[in-house]
Amino acid sequence: MTNGHSWKGNWNARLYERVRERGFDSLTAFAEARPTASLVELAQELGADDIAGVQVFSGLVAEAVRSKQLTRLVRGQFVRELHACFPNGWPSVLDDDARMEVSIALGHWFAHTPETHKERVDRAGDALLAHPPPPGWQPLGPDDELLRTLLPDEEA
After folding, report:
1. For 137-140, which contacts have Cβ atoms below 8 Å and span 24 or more sequence positions?
2. Computed from CA positions of residues 101, 83, 69, 14, in that sequence, does the dihedral angle turn out positive or negative?
3. Considering the entire predicted model, what is its pTM?
4. What φ, ψ does residue 91 adopt, rounded to 5°?
5. Which long-range contacts (CB under 8 A, 24 or more apart) does 35-40 make?
6. pLDDT exceeds 60 at position 142
7. What is the dihedral of CA 128, 131, 94, 147, to 10 degrees?
8. Which of 39, 53, 56 is nearest to 2 (CA)?
9. Please, what is the average pLDDT of the chain?
10. How does 84-111 read in b/e, with b if 16+ C-beta sit within 10 Å?
11. What is the dihedral of CA 21, 24, 26, 29, to 10 degrees?
12. First to last CA, the chain
């Protein structure tokens, strides 16, 4: 936890300084080198005491908007949420308990989606529930074929 220190000073400059210290030109490059790490894990790696996951996400969104890669970022966030909830991949059976867990993962994904993409993410989540992927499916990054089908690169 950051104990509130993450908001002191120029956190944006601190965030990018830490990214450069680790040899990356952008926050996106840093995050994509760790495609299954949660936002909290990324923040902890950059500074457990003074960087928060929400700051990492804010920076990622800003970079994605500038580079017109917001849809790719949204797919990448799904990978992070799915990995956190299902480290062994998509459940083999969607019984009531598994359906609830999938719904929670989809809800986390939706919560970390910019407004411009919420409707598309909602439809993608519905499609995953209506036609589940194979058991054990675990995308390892935003370029996963099924994810690209659910959420093509066209920008909203």
Report:
1. 137/89, 137/90, 138/82, 138/83, 138/86, 138/88, 138/89, 138/90, 139/78, 139/79, 139/82, 140/35, 140/36, 140/79
2. positive
3. 0.91
4. -60, 150
5. 35/76, 35/79, 35/80, 35/140, 35/141, 35/142, 36/79, 36/80, 36/83, 36/140, 37/80, 38/80, 38/83, 38/84, 39/80, 39/112
6. yes
7. -30
8. 53
9. 93
10. bebeeebbeebeeeeeeebeebbebbbe
11. -140
12. 34
Contact of 6 with 112, CB cutoff 8 Å: no
Amino acid present at 2: T
3-state DSSP: the chain helix, strand, coil percent, rounded to 5?
Answer: 65, 0, 35
Closest CA to 85 of 55, 114, 106: 106
Confidence (pLDDT) at 155? 52
Per-residue pLDDT tens over the stretch 9-49: 789 999 999 999 999 999 999 999 999 999 999 999 999 88
